[in-house]
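Researcher: Here's the sequence for the chain we discussed earlier.
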Amino acid sequence: MILCIAPVLSGGALAGVRRALDAARFRDGQETAGWHARVVKHNRQADPADVGAAAETVTKALTAHPVFQAAALPQRIGPILFNRYAPGMDYGPHVDDAIMGSGAARLRSDLSFTLFLDDPASYDGGDLVIDSVGGEQGYKLDAGACLLYPATALHRVAPVTRGRRHAAVGWVQSLVRAADRREILFDLDTARRAVFEQHGKSTIFDLLAKTHANLLRQWAEP
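Model: Thanks. This is the structure I predict for it:
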């Protein structure tokens, strides 16, 4: 399941993250790429020491967003990385590492996300392109919107030809490892919320809520 979630960041929170990136030092993005992705990664990455507060803002926004929570069912959200693409920069086809981090910070990457931080009209190119059985699909979302997608997918960032593209990226270890089960739970959650909004706490809502809870109880890996 590929899901566009908007907005996740807006107003003062988005402006604060942008100010932090304007003041941050940026390093070669290859420093954090796996050995096979390093050869196709051509971007810059903010020094974590300069963007700690911005990373916390993004993590809190994701944690508080009901759609992100329902779709990802996060057990853990990995460290947030901020990248920059200037004209001529891109990130060729790659798949994210299955295990991210080390020690106590280690997680299994079930889901990846990209939170777009710039107005899409301010730069050309820079689409996040995801490969699937139906072919490649490009995504270029509004500032503050997030794309959530399977970490198992082959994907790339198209070359930027004008302006600058900034994004926050990260990974989720889900309580439910299987993607098809997460999608079932997301659909059930969407349905029960819609029924509640239309009819309140009805018999149909109770049955949907019961089924959602019992499937989550069966499939979750806390």
